[in-house]
Structures are given as structure tokens and as C-alpha cells.
């Protein structure tokens, strides 16, 4: 990789410094962190071993690999797509440009689900399968179905389940269209960004993640309308729904589920922002695990 002053040095420290400079110039928010992650990936090392096991000087092949990785990140491609994985809950999940990048705030939904008593779960719009697989890994005796309208996303989810040793079923469906049976729990992280908000997203999201997983190309509430309207027909008695929401959507989405006959709570994420709607259908008190 060419250094900022034009000198070409294959030394580890010089290459890392050049990577940080390139990413900083490209506007990457945490350039030092991302440069270290990509350096570790280029050297096939855990990032925690980078300062211990990295060679003093990179081979030409390693330099070329690092340069390609840094160029992709400088174009603002998400680092998870570049290295092919993203940590979520207790596992690393394979991600591709066909799937939404699992985000830490979605763990709020997983935590909420694990407080409930359920033995079957339906994950609508499963993407990487991160929510469903995380839940079933915690309750291996439970059964689960993940649906998505994207065949490419379903392939990623199936691969993640197989690699992590979690038994789950996956099928193509458009929300409830194509789904049969009833479940104790329905979960979803649907596209909730309004079309008018898309332009303000970071390049990592706007240019590289699948738009169909981000927005409904309308007001951001279309998926919730369909889930709220159809949930009761696909839940067992006293079943529950957990959906992730945008931080400004709490009241609007809660109203949709209340109008569908559910008792509703709005749950905050670790930053105190509205993040999950918990909706219970049925006359009996909610059972918790």
C-alpha cells in the first residue's frame, strides 16, 4: 500500500498507518478500529493477536490483499460485508449484500423474547437468521420457522443455522402469505425506515444494504400493519409478538397492535430509546420463563 508521503513500505506499522490515513480521508467514523480489523483479516489473525503475531513486514500478497480490503472500506462498504461476518448476541453470523447487517440494538428483542415462555417461534423477514438462530440456540428444545421474501437471504440464514448447529426451518413467504400453523411467539425486525428518511442514512447503509430490508418505500409502517392484522391468526392462545421499531415509532406501532386487540408495551434499548413493541394476544396473564 502506498504511504501518504508516496513511499512504499511493506512494514506492518507503516501499512497499518497508511490504512488508517486512507480510511480517515474517506470519512470512515472509526478508522483505527476498522484498519486493525481489516489488517487482521488480511493476515488471517484474530484481531486480539494482531500486536503479538503480526509479521514485521507483510509479503507482497498480504499487501495486495490489505490494499483491496481497505479500498472496499474506503468506498464505505460495511466492514461486516468485507470480512463476511458480524457478531450478534453470542455468535458470529455470516452476512452478505443480500442481508441486513445484524445490529446491537436488535439484541433488545432477543432479550425480551427470552423472558417469555414459548416453545415455537416464527421469525418474519429473517434475513441472516440472527434473531431466530440466537433464540433457538438458547432453547434447543423449541422449534422455529424463519421466512423471507428473498431466496438469497434464506440461503444465508440456512447456512448460518447449519454452521452454528441450530435446528431451524426456513421458507419463502411474504409476511404471513405462505405461512401455515400457529406459534407461541412471532418476532420480526421489518423494514421500518420511511422512504423520505433514506437519503439521510450513512453510505454504508444507503449504498450497500438491501433497500427492501430497510424501507417499505412508504411511511415505514406498512410491515407493522400487516403483522398486527395477521398475528392473532398465527398465534397460539396467549401468544406474543415482538417487533423492532425505529426510535420515533413507538406510539404509532403500539396503536396498530392495540387496535388489533393486543395488550402492548414499548421496550427501550440500552440507550433508552424506544426499540421493541411487545404485544400479547389473549385473555390470560402473560407467562414468563
TrEMBL record:
EC number per UniProt: 2.1.1.297
One of the GO biological process terms: methylation
Keyword vocabulary terms for this entry: Methyltransferase, S-adenosyl-L-methionine, Transferase
MF terms in GO: nucleic acid binding; peptide chain release factor N(5)-glutamine methyltransferase activity
Residue numbers binding substrate: 189-192
Record field: catalytic activity: L-glutaminyl-[peptide chain release factor] + S-adenosyl-L-methionine = N(5)-methyl-L-glutaminyl-[peptide chain release factor] + S-adenosyl-L-homocysteine + H(+)
Residues annotated as signal peptide: none
Domain Release factor glutamine methyltransferase N-terminal residues, every copy: 16-84
Methyltransferase small domain ranges (all copies): 108-194
Superkingdom: Bacteria
Binding site residues for S-adenosyl-L-methionine: 125-129, 148, 175, 189
Role played: Methylates the class 1 translation termination release factors RF1/PrfA and RF2/PrfB on the glutamine residue of the universally conserved GGQ motif.
Family named by the database record: Belongs to the protein N5-glutamine methyltransferase family. PrmC subfamily.
PANTHER family the record matches: HEMK METHYLTRANSFERASE, MTRF1L RELEASE FACTOR GLUTAMINE METHYLTRANSFERASE
Protein name: Release factor glutamine methyltransferase
Amino acid at each position: 500500500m502506498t504511504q501518504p508521503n508516496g513511499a512504499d513500505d511493506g512494514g506492518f506499522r507503516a501499512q497499518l498507518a497508511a490504512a488508517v490515513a486512507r480510511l480517515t480521508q474517506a470519512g470512515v467514523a472509526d478508522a483505527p478500529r476498522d484498519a486493525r480489523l481489516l489488517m487482521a483479516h488480511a493476515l488471517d489473525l484474530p484481531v486480539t493477536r494482531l500486536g503479538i503475531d503480526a509479521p514485521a513486514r507483510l509479503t507482497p500478497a498480504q499487501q495486495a490483499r490489505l490494499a483491496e480490503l481497505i479500498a472496499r472500506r474506503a468506498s464505505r462498504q460495511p466492514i461486516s460485508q468485507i470480512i463476511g461476518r458480524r457478531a450478534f448476541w453470542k455468535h458470529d453470523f455470516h452476512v452478505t449484500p443480500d442481508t441486513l447487517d445484524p445490529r446491537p440494538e436488535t439484541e433488545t428483542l432477543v432479550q425480551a423474547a427470552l423472558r417469555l415462555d414459548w416453545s415455537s417461534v416464527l421469525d418474519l423477514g429473517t434475513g441472516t437468521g440472527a434473531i431466530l438462530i440466537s433464540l433457538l440456540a438458547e432453547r434447543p428444545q423449541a422449534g422455529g420457522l424463519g421466512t423471507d421474501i428473498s431466496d438469497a437471504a434464506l440461503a444465508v440464514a440456512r447456512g448460518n443455522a447449519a454452521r452454528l448447529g441450530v435446528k431451524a426451518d426456513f421458507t419463502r413467504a411474504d409476511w404471513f402469505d405462505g405461512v401455515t400453523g400457529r406459534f407461541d411467539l412471532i418476532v420480526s425486525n421489518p423494514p421500518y425506515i420511511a422512504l423520505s428518511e433514506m437519503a439521510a442514512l450513512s453510505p454504508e447503509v444507503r449504498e450497500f444494504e438491501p433497500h427492501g430490508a430497510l424501507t417499505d418505500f412508504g411511511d415505514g409502517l406498512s410491515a407493522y400493519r400487516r403483522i398486527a392484522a395477521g398475528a392473532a391468526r398465527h398465534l397460539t392462545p396467549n401468544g406474543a409478538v415482538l417487533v423492532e421499531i425505529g426510535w420515533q415509532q413507538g406510539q404509532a406501532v403500539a396503536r396498530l397492535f392495540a387496535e388489533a386487540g393486543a395488550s402492548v408495551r414499548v421496550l427501550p434499548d440500552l440507550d433508552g430509546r424506544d426499540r421493541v413493541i411487545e404485544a400479547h394476544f389473549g385473555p390470560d396473564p402473560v407467562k414468563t420463563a
